[in-house]
Amino acid sequence: MSNIMSALSDLRLLDNLARGKTFIHRINPLVKLLTTVVYLTVVVSFGRYEISSLLTFIFYPVLIFALAELPVTPILKKVLFVQPLIIGIGILNPIFDSHSVLLGDIAVSRGWITFLAIFIKSGLTVTVSILLIATTGMDRLAAALRMLKIPKIFVLQLILTYRYISVLMEEVHRMLRAYSLRAPGQKGVQRNHWGSFAGQLLLRTFDRAQRVYQSMSLRGFNGEYHTGKSAKLGLIDFAYFSGWSIFFILARIYDIPVLMGSLLIGVMK
Amino acid sequence: MSHHKLEVKNLHFSYPDGHEAVKNMSFTIYHGESVGIIGANGAGKSTLLMLIMGIIFPDGGEILLGDVHVTKKTLSMVRQRLGMVFQDPDDQLFMTSVYDDVAFGPRNYNLDEEEVENRVNYALEMVGIAHLRDRAPYKLSGGEKRAAAVASVLSLQPDMLIMDEPTSALDPKARRRIIHLLNSFEHTKIITSHDLDMILDTCQRVLVIRQGEIIADGKTLEVLSNEELLDAYGLETPLSLQNCPKCGSLKG
Fold first, then answer.
1. Is B220 near chain A, with CB under 8 Å?
2. Which residue ranges make up each domain of chain B?
């Protein structure tokens, strides 16, 4: 039961973080969205065995963490939620791809390398997506999507799903509390109550959603979700986008860690 | 200011399951009046409010706001002039900050952002929660939430305020603040409640409803001191009009 409430406060954490006032928060949401899209595209485009050049891309989330003054642990915890899935996808790679390659003096199966690549890629992409929400907020993100001319029905779907998750969770929490108080010494909900429990939950959330919708339409809501300020694109926004994009593309073409390594070795020689 | 008048004529509504929630109701509420609507649970109070707001439409009869019929076509205009505060403020507050919630209505009417800000500040000042503007609604106390819900309606600058149980689930101090707040508004008000003392403090006129019918319509003090009438319809004389519980002496 407490899990639901802590999950709810986790969810609200992103909303709270998005209210920050740092340099990163003030960047135009559209620019942040596009930068993230470029980042994701570039990271995903790496081949299965290219780990070293992938490492350059840690730089971006690290810098955002620092500049936007975000707490690292709670956000990385969210990333960890996804990782079991990724492990599930990649865990068979070492078995299927058993060619061994030499890494220095150690021979490893190529499968391990592809597995690691998947692991790093997913870690980076999920982190960066969460960072986008944590520095922008769902509302402004929706406004950015509308600026990109995404149909309002999709944007609305996204934003209302996000809003209603907490409604649903509160409802579950209340029902579980009422249930557990009258079912002492029981763990969870008994199997023969699952049906009515789920049915009740559905009906209750329908009712609640109905009332929320009524209160929205009484205040003039007609399908367009207004978030107020649609900030103009400034020079800084432009510089931010082009700066990062150029960096991402360069890092895609040149293997920066190797270059830096050879530079260092050259200097030492 | 005839357009502030609300007229309900021979209103009739039954739910799809056949339950007749409103039967042949007629009344008129004039500009500046505060009207309490009371009745036992299931008497039809909430249905009446939903009919007035155009959330549901009657099977018979009509509702007039000034000279305008409440129909699907006039809804946008009607809803701009009638502001309804829901019983549960959580139904009304769903944005990430109090400011955004209060700005929700004005933004839907495509006001420019400067005007939106003026209205939000004005509404927050009016209910006395200007200091909470950047807080997340779910973190507020019950009384603060209620005030924020009222502000979210006031920002539309309605002519008439409609409130469903504005004092339910509030502690005595918060309840008193809401009563003061209601009394400070010059709007025409319609308030439904079981809190008869609050109705006595805020409304000059009261309608008593039973099983979808109006059974009394008159001055609050007169209706609420009519013990027989109240008792017959599942209500009770307000505490402030009852005799002293210690000595049994009559209240002056």
1. no
2. 6-90+158-241
**A229: confidence class by pLDDT, cuts 50, 70, 90:** low
- Taking CA atoms, what residue in B is nearest to A229? B113
3-state helix vs strand vs coil in chain B, percent to 5: 40, 25, 35
Residue B112 buriedness (CB in 10 A; 0-12 / 13-18 / 19+): exposed
ipTM: 0.82
Chosen for mutation from B50, B52, B53, B55 (greatest number of chain A CBs closer than 10 Å) is B55
Number of folded domains that form chain A = 1
Q: How many whole angstroms separate alpha carbon A201 and alpha carbon B177?
A: 35
CB contact under 8 A, B152 and A219: yes
| B156 in contact with chain A, both atoms CB, cutoff 8 A | yes
- Give this prediction's pTM: 0.78
Residue-number span of the structural domain to which A69 is assigned: 2-268
CA angle B74, B161, A207 (to 5 degrees): 75
Quick: pLDDT tens for B24-53.
999 999 999 999 999 888 888 989 999 999
Q: What is the DSSP string of A26-77?
A: HS-HHHHHHHHHHHHHHHHTS-TT--TGGGGGGHHHHHHHHHTT--HHHHHH
Cβ–Cβ under 8 Å, residues A136 and A33: yes
Nearest to A211 among B80, B91, B107 (CB): B91
Say yes or no: B92 contacts chain A, CB-CB below 8 A.
yes
Q: Do A137 and B96 touch (CB under 8 A)?
A: yes
3-state SS of A94-122 is HHHCCCEEEECCEEEEHHHHHHHHHHHHH
Q: Which CATH architecture has domain B6-90+158-241?
A: 3-Layer(aba) Sandwich (3.40)
Token representation of residue B171: 């502690």
**Reduced to 3 states, what is the DSSP secondary structure of residue B33?**
coil
Alpha carbons B18 and B205: distance in angstroms, whole number = 31
